[in-house]
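Subgroup meeting minutes
Present: P.N., E.W., G.H.
Scribe: E.W.

1. P.N. recapped why we're keeping a running log of single-chain structure predictions: easier to compare across weeks, and new members can see raw inputs and outputs side by side.
2. G.H. added today's entry (169 aa).
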Amino acid sequence: MIRFRIHDAETFVAAIQDEISRTREGRYFHRLHVVLCVLQGYSTYEAARIYGDSKRAVQYWVGQLLSHGLAGLRDKEHHGRLPQLAQSNEQELRNDLLHSPRDLGYDQNLWDGPLLSHHIKERYTVTLSVRQCQRLFHKFDLTLQRPRRQPREADPLQQEAFKKSSKNG
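Output recorded in log:
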């Protein structure tokens, strides 16, 4: 039998493995193939080497097949970390952010991360970091508003004269 010589075979291998691992179905069919290889007489070590998986993963998949059937080879649901702030509280918080902090008894005119963190701790008894509060602003499609500061003794006439006399102005 003649062997094919493929240039850049490693590139194709990586692309195919990426394609397989991209979807749940692809990963499921990959596991089916590996387990089928073991069922046809290959050792878990040989199947792992052929398909590029760890021996331990192949042993786990065979065990899943034996204990749960084909369903044991499917991906499990992955649940992330539960949110600290309840969904109903998020809606209330969004309404709070649409009002001035002064309306809620704070000394500031504008919301910022530290103030929001304090507000959430006081109102909802939940501690969120300043960075997490900044993410909430982004989640609610709100932007951090900062007033543009001007020097107290700035003279608009002198500023205009400077702009006109400077090389870049």
